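re: ur question from yesterday

yeah so i grabbed the chain u mentioned. its 464 aa long if i counted rite. heres the sequnce exactly as i have it in my notes:
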Amino acid sequence: MGKTLFDKIWARHLVTEVGGDTQVLYIDRHFIHEVTSPQAFAGLRQRGIPVFRPAQTIATADHNVPTRNQHLPIQEELSRFQVDTLTENCADFGINLYGLGHKHQGIVHVIGPELGITQPGMTIVCGDSHTSTHGAFGCIAFGIGTSQVEQTLATQCVLQRKPKQMRINVDGELQPGVTAKDVILHIISRLTASGGTGYFVEYAGSAIRGLSMEARMTICNMSIEMGARGGLIAPDETTFDYIRGRKFAPQGEAFAEAVEQWSALYTDEKAVFDQEYHFRAEEIEPMVTFGTNPGMGIGIGQRIPETPAGNATYQKALDYMGLQAGQSMAGQKVHHVFIGSCTNSRMEDLRMVAELVKGKQKAPHVKVMIVPGSKQVEAQAKAEGLDQIFEAAGFEFREPGCSACLGMNEDKVPAGEYCVSTSNRNFEGRQGPGARTILASPAMAAVTALEGRLVDVREFLNQN
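ran it thru and got these structure tokens back, copy pasting raw so excuse formatting
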């Protein structure tokens, strides 16, 4: 029987078994940020333990940072304390920190790939569920809890149970206006927000192979939103071309040697998965969510499904969102548009938006925030003049951070108001107490900002 890509990477990093089905897995890269690391460092101090391999841990500030006036002291007390604590911990334990003001600062799952730190065949962890993003490079990447952050700092290993495996195949050609975000929202809507529970997912098929690296990151980023432990995509020439020349990537002959090794990272033809699904790319529409989990999504041309008999949770979600079964999402008025997060804040996302809004104006009643995923993305956007396009359209172009993806910083959505967001979660209160979140692609967010209501981006494209 053949081996899956996941099997091959897992076997190379398996240290030992400790009883039952629990195994010790070696970790190549450990990313940390200001929210889930303080308790871990406190634990090390209490036990008098150093960080075992500090060079393999990379830190940045992202969740609680302001996205305006980052050159000034942080005004919000808790945020300032967390960021200052991260700075102190990294200095004390010898960890490389990309803090506020550093040219490499940004959202942890954006800076790893853009700096070439993320590479095929690695095991990668972070105290953040969307660590699955790095799986786009052919990695086993997953989020861990604070106790496991401490475990990784102390030993460069984690205790894990090997998950079941699923393959999701997407074949065919995507319609104009349909993006990677629509693909993953479509998949989650079909499998539900718990359909991947207990699995690690490999994405395959011609439509997946045809995606750029940034689009693949969007797909893997949201694996967690269907309950999966993580997601990955086999590396190929698209992967190698993306990594080539990046700051921490192998250089010269070392890169050629690395590519030779990376090229062996694929699922064998006779490998068997515990579960497998097939989707046709042509059937995927621009997607929007209508409820309070990412599985409650529909194509923009569809209507909200009827409440399943006896499903009080479903009806509760509709009540929270102020929506009704049978209602069309097209035409729904919105108050806010947020373009950013570790799901959709990279250069391709910003270029997509700029192309759609150039020379146009946002609807007067809509507040639009564009938050780049890193200082490098911010600098590149300015070099290409995208910031000027955004500002001319009435959009606010901010500084890097997680921003309105989560109600943990200053960028919150007021209670009862609708926000079309390119982020990954639409839970109750995710963007602020009482906020109503509609997940969508950057393209859908852009045309929503212009119209002030949900519209089908395909119709917009046909008019221009």
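noticed a couple things. The radius of gyration is 21 Å. also The mean pLDDT is 96.
anyway ttyl
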